[in-house]
Amino acid sequence: MKRDPDSSKDLSAQIAAAIRDEIMSGKLIVDARLPSEAELAEHFAVSRPTVREALKRLAAQSLIRTQRGATGGAFVNRLSFEEAYGQQITTSTLLLSMNAVSFDVACEARFALERACAPLAAARRRPEHLAQMRREIARQSDPALSDEDFCASDVALHRALVDGSGNPVLSYHLAGAVEAMQPLMNMITFTARSRGAIIDLHSRITDAIEAQDAGSADTALCELADYTMTLGRDVMAARSTRAADHSRGTPD
Amino acid sequence: MKRDPDSSKDLSAQIAAAIRDEIMSGKLIVDARLPSEAELAEHFAVSRPTVREALKRLAAQSLIRTQRGATGGAFVNRLSFEEAYGQQITTSTLLLSMNAVSFDVACEARFALERACAPLAAARRRPEHLAQMRREIARQSDPALSDEDFCASDVALHRALVDGSGNPVLSYHLAGAVEAMQPLMNMITFTARSRGAIIDLHSRITDAIEAQDAGSADTALCELADYTMTLGRDVMAARSTRAADHSRGTPD
DNA sequence: TGAAAATAAATTGTCAGACAATTAGCTTCC
DNA sequence: GGAAGCTAATTGTCTGACAATTTATTTTCA
Which residues of B, range 35-74, sit inside 8 Å of A by Cβ? Predict the structure, then answer.
């Protein structure tokens, strides 16, 4: 375990990288205990605060966990699916919001991936997945629901569909794609008519999944993708029209 | 910007969470400068080392970057696709290696997602994507190539295919799925025969993408998925047979 | 006057040492 | 035997200091 001496990075970054390599290469296995902070400080010839900064970097990625007390220390953490979901969602959401990713591109990616899950979900969905989807459809049918909650329910329904594939790795990869769309969807104002259309498509998808009819599910998903993109384009068009009006001095 | 007072987490984790919320909610926009460490320490009523640990946590997730000097400080970082790829790959690789995910499950997820890219790639692939794929096929045809390099080239080919979809968000989501398979693929010993079969399928896929024939590309991808899973199952079978022999005391 | 050089100021990076809080294990006492 | 207390190890946090780096300002000199 050695840090790169002629690196331009911070000491704490170098040390974090050295330990990360040990973990990713399998030299440090799950639940293995790292040397104490004092020992690491001595080993790398740095001070304890510097070691601590390095450890916090690793903790931020859920690579280690720490425990106080006599038998405490830093331990290699088994990255759980839950933690991985969380990181996936954080990264995906920021990537989309910070890079001016167009609604169309994000939507295309999301539905392309979701369509990949549909056949598996149709084959393997279990009663709880169907129940979850029906529950969300019921929620969405409440006209008192705010646009934001409508989007949240939309996300929940789609995650249930993805989970129906019975492949946790697939669920993990899709988590970011589905959740990161929520902020973009929140820009849309859902009229009673558009809600009705979406709920109708959600019902068709759920019915198809229940009937294990992958073809119908795919068709409905494609229609939903088209419809969602249309809504997105309408918002963009309205926005640019308003901006143009503003620049010409037209009142609101 | 306030930290949760009755949280069981570390102070540095609470502060990191508070700042992360500000970034994710958009209150701190890209390139905005955070208060200096001394100011943050005063604001949160903690010491500077604690603030620094919090900032390192955020830096580990590429949420901020720091700069020394008079006009330096911590700035909200625009999460680039490159950085997001990296985090995606790290997380995916660890998730698979630490959770005893079966080869089949990981493989199924990967090919399901990749099949979702194929139609888009067939429609939009550009010459550089085809060239990259051909180049990797040529590399793979060299019998002197080690198994590890063969896998690396395999990953490179599939990433070129994914990038051919022309959707960077899709490429981002697939990066983890494709790259994280590499350690699992490395467990397989590729015979000349299996290499030939794989290269043949790679060629068919590339030809189909070049001909913009999404159907043929999908068929070849499915065959490749089946073949890869067969190889994986053979390895597992051989391994369990050997283990059983060992437990009965049979010599190697 | 203009440009180069020196200086000052602000900020992060690093260090040393200390004490608090927590936890496991051991010891002592009943 | 069990409960209470003590001890040791370890992480969590604080204080204060100095080094390194970068920008802005001032001074100096041609």
Answer: 49, 52-54, 56-61, 63
Is residue A3 one of the residues assigned to a domain?
A: no
Q: Which residue is nearest to nucleotide C25 (CA to C1')?
A: A70
Contacts of A117 in chain B (CB under 8 A): 112
| B13 chain-A contacts, CB cut-off 8 A | 59
Residues 83-102 of B with CB under 8 A from A: 84, 87-88, 90-99, 101
Show which of residues 110-149 on chain B sit within 8 Å of chain A, judged by CB atoms.
112-113, 115-117, 120
- The answer on A109 and A227 residing in a single domain is yes
**Residue pLDDT, tens place only, A32-81:** 999 999 999 999 999 999 999 999 999 999 999 999 999 999 999 999 99
* pLDDT at res. A75: 97
Q: What is the pTM of this model?
A: 0.87
Is the model's pLDDT at B190 over the cut of 70? yes
For residues A27 and A121, membership in a common domain is answered with no
Q: Which residues pair with B33 in a beta bridge?
A: B75
Among B169, B178, B221, B229, pick the best mutation site for testing chain A contact (most A Cβ within 10 A).
B169
Quick: pLDDT tens for B198-249: 999 999 999 999 999 999 999 999 999 999 999 999 888 887 776 655 555 5
Check whether residue B178 and residue B68 sit in a common domain.
no
pLDDT tens digits, one per residue of B75-101: 999 999 999 999 999 999 999 999 989
Asked if B160 contacts B117 with a C-beta cutoff of 8 angstroms, the reply is: no
Residues B62 and B169 in one domain: no
Asked if pLDDT for residue A252 goes beyond 50, the answer is no
For residue B74, what is the enclosing H or E element?
Answer: strand B73-76
CA distance B246 to B145: 32
CA dihedral A204, A208, A214, A219 (to 10 degrees): -20
Nearest-10 crossing angle of helices B11-24, B37-44: 110
Chain B residues touching residue A30 (CB < 8 angstroms): 98
Cα diameter, chain B: 71
Mutate to test the interface with A, among B15, B55, B90, B91 (most CBs of A within 10 A): B91
Q: How far apart are CA B43 and CA A102, in angstroms?
A: 37
A119-145 residue pLDDT tens: 999 999 999 999 999 999 999 999 999
Nucleotides of D under 7 A from a protein CB: 8-17, 20-24
Contacts A–B by Cβ distance under 8 A = 153
**Which candidate, B202, B195, B81, B82, places its Cα nearest to that of B130?**
B202
Asked if A89 and A174 touch (Cβ cutoff 8 Å), the reply is: no
The last residue of a domain, from among A19, A42, A76: A76
